Amino acid sequence: MARQIIQDLLAKAAISINGPNPWDISIKNDQLFKRVLVDTDMALGESYMDNWWDCVDLDQFFYRIFSANLEHKILLHPKFWRNTLIQSTYVILRRFFNYQTKHKAKIVGESHYDIGNDLYQSMLDKRLVYTSAYWEGANSLDEAQEKKLELTCQKLYLKPGMTLLDIGCGWGSFAKYAAEKYGVSVVGITISKEQMELGQDLCRGLPIEFRLMDYRDLLKENLQFDRIVSLGMFEHVGYKNYSLYMKTVAHCLKSNGLFLLHSIGTNRSTSVTSRWINTYIFPNGQLPSIAQLGAALEGVFVMEDWHNFGVDYDKTLMAWHRNFNSNWDKLKHKYSERFRRMWNYYLLSSAAGFRARHAQLWQLVLSKNGLANGYRRV
């Protein structure tokens, strides 16, 4: 019965069990169907990690799942009542409790960003940019990431001598580019020890200071900056903290300054992310919606520009996937086969989410009082 239920649902997305297409799934353990019926999100990911099923083009499999909105249809299906109960409990807990406190924020730093610089050096571009690239006119990941860094600098109207705060600076890729190309001095904050240590080496000799600190601690500082940037960090803030985050940024920004926020976004307001992603990839992460961002910005910032290039994240993730797998021989002595399957599941399911337009990638340019002569979009 469980197999038939799953088979009928997959058919709505033109996916077959043990079918001939590269997006069809091949079953290696028939217990998969009962497992997925009880706890779909976790079971699908964990069973893939356990090698219970496989798929030639996992990104195409998920693209069809998302395009057919199967994840929502499952919650409405009467046979998935236990799955619905688990998901409802998960949602309720995150509505009542703050899962992105200062203490809990350290968890993602340790479990994701600190797992090994060798992994990211094998997967990312030469500058170690761990956010979406900008692919217009680019022929490689290195070119596309440099175009994104340049685009960001131009949007901020950077000029020599300016001071810049980079919230969630990673390994210092943007700080290094901005300091070298535009002559600005940078303070970068991160919660990852591994990122900070490597970043300090990569940026040696440049006017760049790294600090291991939570963004909320900036409220204790009296420093103000000409420009503030945050690339791919806001996904860890959590909706209960959005207003505090914006007020913290405003506290650090000069009255005539600009703030660029680069974040993945979602089409619907929610308080949760996928339970599998939360468990294995980004603990306590959450994607903002337009409504949630708007509420946090109101009365704090003036919207100068909002740019969506979410389709570029699909290409970026696929490039990371190729790099990760082509360099696997260098990594397999340290990371298990189960980790390899987990990481591929993360990269390819994420790529499919952007391809299906369920996830977006936004760059917002914000000012405190509105630019007197207006903002001319780059």
How would you sum up this structure, described in words?
This protein has 378 residues and is α/β, with parallel strands linked by helices. The chain folds into two domains: 2-96, no CATH class; 102-367, Vaccinia Virus protein VP39 (Rossmann fold). The chain is 47% helix and 16% strand. It has helices at residues 2-11, 32-38, 40-49, 58-67, 70-76, 81-96, 102-113, 117-123, 141-155, 173-182, 193-202, 242-252, 275-280, 290-297, 311-326, 328-331, 337-355; strands spanning 25-27, 53-55, 163-167, 185-190, 208-212, 225-231, 253-266, 302-308, 359-367. It has a seven-stranded mixed β-sheet. A two-stranded antiparallel ribbon has the order 1-2. Helix 10 (173-182) links the parallel strand 3 (163-167) and strand 4 (185-190). 42% of the residues are buried.
Report the span from N to C terminus.
56 Å
Strand order of the largest sheet: 5-4-3-6-7-9-8
Task: Give the CATH topology of the largest domain.
Answer: Rossmann fold
Number of strands: 9
- Sheet-strand content, in percent, reads 15-25%
Helical coverage, percent range: 40-55%
> What is the CA-atom radius of gyration, in angstroms?
21 Å
Question: Which class of secondary structure composition applies to the elements?
Answer: alpha/beta
Under CATH, the homologous superfamily of the largest domain reads Vaccinia Virus protein VP39
CATH architecture of the largest domain: 3-Layer(aba) Sandwich
Whole-number tally of structural domains: 2
For the sheet with most strands, the description reads: 7 strands, mixed
Q: Give the low-confidence spans.
A: none
CATH class of the largest domain: Alpha Beta
Shape: globular
- Give the assembly state of these chains: single chain
The topology string of helices and strands comes to HEHHEHHHHHHEHEHEEHEHHEHHHE
User: pLDDT average, as an integer?
Assistant: 92
